[in-house]
Automatic annotation (TrEMBL):
<keyword id="KW-0479">Metal-binding</keyword>
<dbReference type="InterPro" id="IPR017853">
    <property type="entry name" value="GH"/>
</dbReference>
<dbReference type="Pfam" id="PF02449">
    <property type="entry name" value="Glyco_hydro_42"/>
</dbReference>
<protein>
    <recommendedName>
        <fullName>beta-galactosidase</fullName>
        <ecNumber>3.2.1.23</ecNumber>
    </recommendedName>
</protein>
<dbReference type="InterPro" id="IPR003476">
    <property type="entry name" value="Glyco_hydro_42"/>
</dbReference>
<feature type="domain" description="Beta-galactosidase trimerisation">
    <location>
        <begin position="414"/>
        <end position="619"/>
    </location>
</feature>
<dbReference type="InterPro" id="IPR029062">
    <property type="entry name" value="Class_I_gatase-like"/>
</dbReference>
<dbReference type="InterPro" id="IPR013738">
    <property type="entry name" value="Beta_galactosidase_Trimer"/>
</dbReference>
<feature type="signal peptide">
    <location>
        <begin position="1"/>
        <end position="22"/>
    </location>
</feature>
<keyword id="KW-0862">Zinc</keyword>
<keyword id="KW-0732">Signal</keyword>
<keyword id="KW-0326">Glycosidase</keyword>
<comment type="similarity">
    <text>Belongs to the glycosyl hydrolase 42 family.</text>
</comment>
<keyword id="KW-0378">Hydrolase</keyword>
<feature type="domain" description="Glycoside hydrolase family 42 N-terminal">
    <location>
        <begin position="42"/>
        <end position="394"/>
    </location>
</feature>
<dbReference type="Pfam" id="PF08532">
    <property type="entry name" value="Glyco_hydro_42M"/>
</dbReference>
<dbReference type="InterPro" id="IPR013529">
    <property type="entry name" value="Glyco_hydro_42_N"/>
</dbReference>
Length: 683
């Protein structure tokens, strides 16, 4: 009961920040919280007969699945022609799920739009930056900013949610599979909408000209009609490109707001579980600055290739949420054409370490045709159950054991890594890092992973957050890795966090540009020179060697900044540069401290630096594990996950019993390749 009350308290605290969330989170006291895990699958009944559906559902039940995700990618299944809805077949699907005791996440299928919609409303077609109208050749080719699209998507959502709002199988609602991975469009309608967006943002042509630095190289804009959509691929000034990305982000968020309004109206007692792809390089959107408007639980498609990138994406989608994470699409089999045994099971436990609550295999049936033809599901192409179904039945069995033992685990990170959509856009190839300015930056994600990797390997929980969107008092340490664009609100948030007693680490190439992607005309880091007690205006192109504690380490990135401390204390110097310039400094500011690293974030540098801070910050690393093995302690038991393709021996203290395997271990735990185990003290 204490855990349940805690979850409700967290939910209400978030609701107080946003009235929309109050409606979405307050009304479902029976929503699964602590003590429930979910194994299941994604299911697309569009080309399954009712007899096949019945056999499929029977296999799902037999395998111990608790939940399925349906409806995504299926707009014309529900609305084959404009205004004519067909639900007979899907009614039967929902009833079969209910009879089997399987809950349903119903995805509103706003993407892709049906062919009839493209034919009748050509504004929904994508127009590329060369001005060519493109046929919807793949599922992401819908212009979601088109008014007809938004109107019809709202109607689809309204009709679908009204029909199934009271169905006993309905668990949650999702929005527009992988929204964020669409294409940017360049139609005249898009240009006009962009102009209106600019008018609201800047108010006047003079303000726009100043923000876009149009005095440079004869780029001054005289009237709004002269404004063109900046190119996403190709030449163009950085300032305009950033606004292009912001514009499309706002359109995506507005589309989600449309759907969330429908959900609040028709299914206020059901939460949102949307399969987001906010960091997609095609378009993306500012999920970290908007999630309270349109989601209850973080959810995503999880197709990890390695634990560092997989862990990073899991942290990205969790953001600052206190609720557990759902992995609505999940790698079913692993690398290779058909898959690798043990791969899915290993990752299903890895996500539990990251605060996950559910894993849904993609997908139940193998694909006979379409854009993912020959994709292997849990059933083979002739409908025979493959070994994958047996593995997922084992995952369901594991989850049934673990949910009684403190899972999903409550994740309360004390360390955060700064992230922002604007900063990622500012780092784009079309932005500041072109031609002669290339040496000024290392891609944000490379730096972020450089900071994240040592923390993950030390088995420490990490939040990935937008600084201006969260309550930073929850954290003791915040890392700003390559935050090239640190906007005014985030700058002030950092200042307050440090003044109030927090510790920050900023790395090279941070706080260089303002909110408009223009370089600061003041000493760098922009707006924070007093907080860090230094300025840094010069750059060098060489790999530095420095000492952190007793460890001598070398940068593998040939960029560094020349630091000019004022009130900052030098903690480390480069030993291979003339004059041994400062490599790491610390400045006391208010009650806290601000640390500056003169190189981009890299694991071999960040590891000793972070470890030198743990004791003073009261941070406890998790269990010590060999490389590639990750672990967390949950209610006195320890879950170990071996992500290696070879067996590993893990040192343990005393005698332990494996909850999943049933074996007794003393002194060490032997994990098979891709093996997992939950150890509890042996009485």
């Amino acid at each position: 009961m204490k855990l349940k009350r805690s979850l409700i308290a967290c939910t209400l605290a978030l609701a107080a920040l946003n009235p929309a969330l109050a409606q979405s989170a307050e009304g479902h006291p029976d929503w699964p919280g602590p003590g429930q895990l979910f194994a299941g699958t994604c299911y697309q009944p569009v080309d399954r007969t009712l007899e096949q559906v019945k056999r499929d559902v029977a296999l799902m039940k037999q395998s111990g699945f608790k939940v399925v995700r349906v409806g995504d990618l299926s707009w014309d299944y529900f609305e084959p022609t404009e205004g004519k809805f067909e639900f007979t077949h899907f009614d039967a699907v929902m009833n079969e799920m209910q009879a089997a005791g399987i809950k349903v996440i119903l995805d509103i299928p706003g993407i892709p739009a049906p062919m009839w919609l493209h034919h009748k409303y050509p504004g929904v077609d994508i127009v590329n930056q060369a001005g060519t109208r493109l046929a919807p050749a793949e599922r992401y080719m819908d212009n979601i900013g088109d008014p007809d699209y938004r109107r019809l998507a709202r109607r689809m959502a309204d009709t679908l949610t009204k029909r199934y709002a009271k169905h006993p199988a309905l668990l949650a609602v999702g929005y527009d599979n992988e929204i964020g991975n669409g294409y940017i469009s360049y139609s005249e309608g898009d240009r006009k909408r962009f102009v209106e967006w600019l008018k609201k943002r800047y108010g006047s042509i003079d303000a726009l000209n100043k923000a876009w630095a149009t005095q440079r190289w004869s780029r001054r804009i005289g009237t709004w009609d002269e404004v063109r959509l900046p190119y996403a691929d190709g030449p163009g000034p950085a300032e305009r490109y950033l606004d292009l990305r912001r514009f499309w982000s706002d359109i995506t968020i507005a589309t989600l707001d449309d759907l969330e309004a429908v959900r609040r109206k028709n299914t206020p007692d059901k939460p949102t579980l949307s399969n987001y792809w906010s960091w997609s390089g095609r378009k993306g959107f500012d999920f970290h600055g908007s999630y309270r408007q349109h989601t209850t639980y973080g959810a995503m498609g999880f197709y990890a290739g390695d634990p560092i990138n997989g862990g990073w994406e899991a942290a990205l989608i969790k953001a600052g949420m206190t609720t557990p994470t759902w992995f609505n699409e999940f790698t079913a089999g692993g690398p290779g054409h058909y898959g690798s045994k043990g791969w899915s099971r290993m990752w299903s436990h890895f996500v539990l370490l990251m605060g996950g609550q559910a894993a849904l295999a993609w997908t139940f049936n193998s694909h006979l045709g379409g854009e993912e033809q020959v994709l292997m599901g849990l059933l083979d192409h002739d409908d025979r159950p493959s070994w994958k179904l047996a593995e997922w039945a084992r995952i369901a069995s594991d989850y049934a054991k673990l949910e009684k033992l403190g899972f999903p685990r409550k994740v309360e990170p004390k360390v955060a890594i700064a992230y922002s959509f604007d900063n990622v856009a500012a780092h784009s190839a079309n932005g500041p890092a072109n031609s002669s300015r290339d040496y000024l930056k290392t891609h944000y994600q490379k730096q972020a992973l450089g900071a994240f990797e040592p923390l993950l390997k030390d088995n420490i929980d990490v939040a990935v957050i937008k600084l201006s969107y969260e309550d930073l008092s929850r954290y003791r340490l915040i890392v700003l890795p390559g935050m090239y664009l640190l906007d005014k609100a985030s700058t002030e948030a950092v200042r307050k966090f440090v003044a109030d007693g927090g510790t920050v680490i900023m790395t090279a190439q941070s706080a260089k540009v303002n909110d408009n992607n223009l370089w600061h005309a003041t000493p760098l880091p922009g707006g924070l020179t007093d907080v860090f007690g230094l300025r840094t205006n010069e750059f060098g192109q060489a790999a530095g060697t420095l000492k952190i504690g007793d460890e001598e380490v070398k940068s593998t990135i040939e960029h560094y900044e020349v630091l000019e401390p004022s009130t900052a204390e030098v903690l480390s110097r480069f030993s291979n540069f003339d004059g041994t310039p400062p490599a790491i400094t610390v400045n006391r500011f208010g009650k806290g401290r601000a640390i500056y690293l003169a190189t981009p974030a890299q694991p071999q540098l960040m590891k000793p630096l972070l470890r030198s801070l743990y004791a003073s910050l009261g941070l406890e690393p998790g269990p010590k594990t060999p490389d590639g093995v990750f672990a967390r302690v949950v209610e006195g038991r320890t879950l170990y996950v071996n992500t290696n393709w070879s067996p590993v021996e893990v040192p343990i203290s005393g005698a332990m019993k494996g909850v999943l395997g049933g074996q007794r271990w003393e002194g060490s735990l032997k994990l098979e390749a891709l093996g997992v185990e939950l150890l509890e003290p042996q009485n």
